[in-house]
Amino acid sequence: MTLLWRDTMRAGNSLIDNDHRALLEIINEVEDFLSTPDAIGNIHPILDKLETYTKHHFIREENIMRNIDYPDRLNHLKLHRQLTNTFYGIKSKIIKSSKTKINEENQEEITKLLRHWLINHILGEDLKMKPFLLNAPNM
Ligand SMILES: [Fe+2]
Q: Of 2, 15, 99, 134, which has the most beta carbons under 10 Å away?
């Protein structure tokens, strides 16, 4: 089932929201890919796409936090480093699984990990920025 963007995920800044929506779509692409067994050997480009987009998104988000003088910025930067490390763990798990066989069970596990990875951060941490983003002039 496709992961859908919801208005409740909006952090109140169009750059951040557009990035989050794009990340969600890339995760959907990864999940679609996992359910296409013939294509599984070629999973690297889509994982690289997710990795690159995530890196650029974190830089954009971190610049915005600096611009609005977000009080929890340092903690949030730390969380981004942790998310990056978690992503590498998920990525190697996907690559390892794709070398043997993607079955329904590990497909579900990977799907859960990826969704949890993104959605928990958006809902749990990025949304804390919302009042600051909404009050920031011309952001
Ligand atoms: Fe974030």
A: 15
103 Cα to the center of ligand 1, angstroms: 31
pTM: predicted TM-score of the whole model, two decimal places: 0.89
Q: Quote the CA–CA distance of 24 and 48 in Å, as a whole number.
A: 15
Residue 137 DSSP SS3? coil
Between 103 and 2, the higher pLDDT residue: 2
Q: How remote is the CA of residue 28 from the centroid of ligand 1, in Å?
A: 19
Q: pLDDT by residue (tens digit) across 20-66?
A: 999 999 999 998 888 876 666 788 899 999 999 999 999 999 999 99
Give, for 9, the enclosing helix (H) or strand (E): none
Task: Return the half-sphere exposure (C-beta side, CA atoms, 13 A cut-off) of residue 73.
Answer: 15
* Number of helical (H) and strand (E) elements in the chain, helices listed first: 5, 0
**What domains sit in the chain, N to C, each tagged with a CATH number?**
20-135 (1.20.120.50)
Q: Would you give the DSSP letter of residue 125?
A: T
Predicted pLDDT of residue 105: 73
